Amino acid sequence: MTGDENGGLRLAGTIAPLTSDSSYVRRARERDVDAILRVIGTYVEQHVLLPRTREEILEHIDTWWVSDLNGEVVGCAALRDFGGGLGELRSLSVVAEAHGRGLGESLVHAVVRDARRTGMTRLFAITANPGYFARHGFTELPMEGVPEVLHVDRVPWPRRSGAGHAMELAL
Ligand SMILES: CC(C)(COP(=O)(O)OP(=O)(O)OC[C@H]1O[C@@H](n2cnc3c(N)ncnc32)[C@H](O)[C@@H]1OP(=O)(O)O)[C@@H](O)C(=O)NCCC(=O)NCCS
Predict the structure, then answer these.
(1) CATH number for the domain harbouring residue 151
(2) Whose CA is nearest to atom 43 of ligand 1?
(3) Sheet of 72-83, strands arranged across
(4) Is any atom of ligand 1 closer than 6 Å to the C-beta of 100?
């Protein structure tokens, strides 16, 4: 895990890829909002991710994490806290040209760590890609099993490919 909070140092045992590329995950800042909108934009158009407005992102910017690859934001994810120990991992996305480098995994780890740090006990993801979350220990549950509170601010899907899967990670 590399991270801003580790001063960019890689922990022992983490093999840095043999390229000049440097990537790390850090908390998002207000100046990242355009990059976040760009990263999720492609997948919103494909109805894979829910749209997020600039205002919504800025209002909760402290809940967003971004992947920085050579100084460019190429991935993001957000942690929504619903209280009562319940959280949701939202908007997990990495630009296509940066796929397969472990950036998605680093974002999931950052959000899970943050959820644990804030005392959450159940972390959910509503996704078109259950397989990816299953790789990271999430298990699928029926949508009816998702606590009602998680639907309070959910934007209804106009159209969506691959129907929503509810995934949960016990923290
Ligand atoms: C899901 C996503 C964030 C993964 O990003 P990434 O940085 O490429 O992921 P990683 O490098 O950590 O992992 C890549 C591995 O995950 C696998 N993977 C990717 N999507 C997968 C899926 N839907 N199901 C199962 N495995 C998947 C890849 O095949 C690859 O496997 P390998 O390591 O054995 O080659 C990226 O594919 C993406 O942005 N997808 C579109 C948005 C999306 O679906 N977000 C999820 C929430 S809805």
Answers:
(1) 3.40.630.30
(2) 93
(3) 23-27, 64-69, 72-83, 86-94, 122-127, 165-170, 139-141
(4) yes
The answer as to whether 14 is a domain residue is no
Number of structural domains (the chain) is: 1
Specify the residue with its C-alpha closest to ligand 1, atom 38.
Answer: 93
pLDDT mean values, one per 10 residues, the chain (171 residues): 49 55 94 98 91 95 97 97 96 97 97 98 95 98 90 60 82 97
Q: Which helix or strand (DSSP H or E) is residue 139 part of?
A: strand 139-141
Cα-Cα-Cα-Cα dihedral sign, residues 14, 70, 138, 58: positive
Q: Whose CA is nearest to atom 18 of ligand 1?
A: 132
For the whole model, what pTM was predicted? 0.88
68 neighbors 26 (Cβ within 8 angstroms):
yes
Q: Residue 49: exposed, middle, or buried by beta-carbon count in 10 A (0-12, 13-18, 19+)?
A: buried
Coil, strand or helix at 22? coil
